[in-house]
């Protein structure tokens, strides 16, 4: 039996509050439209396009990016299964950045009306959607600190730690093993380094026996040690059930 369309989204939102069966059904219904597919390294939407809706990633990894006139690119966010790509973006007249597919991506687009209807279900869903938006902003702030204050080794370690915690939140990690489909060029564009420098930092983490990484298969051999190198504090991910006072009973 296939999983419901919003199961990763629901897995993510449960870190804020617990929904009633009716609310879970409504979320699944809203997310149950025809899935779209973006091939690897193709765009879901481009800078300058008119937003069509809110992409919800069902499968695969996506990323936000900005490109300068000379072709240099900065990855400004990573989107994992269960992520809503900017819940308020659909109110804009046109996109100020692009969203691309790191891997092949299956996604659905939620309309503004669907988002409004979900929020109208009651305070649990309404505040959970706000929590999702605020957490996305918190991650963006942490990326700014990463680029501005952490050195290269800390910067890369921090990104790995964040991905581990985010993948764990949606049930996509086995112990401390997971799939990270990022190339060294992707990591360079996300961390403000060159691919050569990224390679050196990866080798340094390997030599300290903090990580194992081959192809897409990644394992944190010493997560506490990796967090220490990164000065990583997961509080900005807000995964500690902050909306427990809203939990549905039964």
UniProtKB/TrEMBL annotation:
<dbReference type="InterPro" id="IPR036390">
    <property type="entry name" value="WH_DNA-bd_sf"/>
</dbReference>
<dbReference type="Pfam" id="PF00027">
    <property type="entry name" value="cNMP_binding"/>
</dbReference>
<protein>
    <submittedName>
        <fullName>Crp/Fnr family transcriptional regulator</fullName>
    </submittedName>
</protein>
<dbReference type="InterPro" id="IPR036388">
    <property type="entry name" value="WH-like_DNA-bd_sf"/>
</dbReference>
<dbReference type="InterPro" id="IPR012318">
    <property type="entry name" value="HTH_CRP"/>
</dbReference>
<dbReference type="InterPro" id="IPR014710">
    <property type="entry name" value="RmlC-like_jellyroll"/>
</dbReference>
<dbReference type="Pfam" id="PF13545">
    <property type="entry name" value="HTH_Crp_2"/>
</dbReference>
<dbReference type="InterPro" id="IPR000595">
    <property type="entry name" value="cNMP-bd_dom"/>
</dbReference>
<feature type="domain" description="HTH crp-type">
    <location>
        <begin position="150"/>
        <end position="224"/>
    </location>
</feature>
<keyword id="KW-0804">Transcription</keyword>
<dbReference type="InterPro" id="IPR018490">
    <property type="entry name" value="cNMP-bd_dom_sf"/>
</dbReference>
<keyword id="KW-0238">DNA-binding</keyword>
<keyword id="KW-0805">Transcription regulation</keyword>
């Amino acid at each position: 039996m296939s999983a419901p369309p919003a199961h990763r989204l629901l897995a993510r939102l449960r870190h804020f509050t617990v929904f009633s069966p009716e609310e879970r059904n409504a979320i699944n219904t809203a997310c149950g439209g025809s899935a779209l597919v973006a091939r690897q390294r193709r765009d879901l939407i481009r800078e300058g396009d008119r937003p069509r809706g809110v992409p919800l990633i069902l499968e695969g990894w996506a990323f936000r990016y900005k490109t300068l006139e000379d072709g240099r690119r900065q990855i400004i966010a990573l989107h994992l299964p269960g992520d809503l790509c900017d819940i308020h973006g659909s109110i804009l007249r046109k996109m100020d950045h692009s969203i691309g597919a790191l891997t092949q991506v299956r996604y659905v687009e939620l309309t503004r009306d669907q988002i409004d209807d979900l929020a109208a279900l009651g305070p649990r869903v309404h505040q959970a959607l706000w929590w999702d938006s605020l957490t996305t902003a918190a991650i963006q702030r942490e990326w700014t600190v990463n680029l501005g204050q952490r050195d290269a080794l800390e910067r890369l370690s921090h990104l790995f730690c964040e991905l581990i915690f985010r993948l764990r939140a949606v049930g996509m990690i086995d112990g401390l093993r997971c799939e990270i489909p990022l190339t060294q060029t992707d990591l360079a564009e996300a961390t403000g380094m060159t691919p050569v420098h990224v390679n050196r930092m990866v080798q340094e983490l390997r030599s300290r026996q903090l990580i194992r990484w081959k192809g897409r298969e990644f394992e944190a051999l010493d997560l506490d040690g990796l967090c220490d190198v990164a000065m990583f504090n997961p509080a900005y991910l807000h995964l500690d059930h902050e909306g427990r006072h809203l939990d549905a009973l039964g």
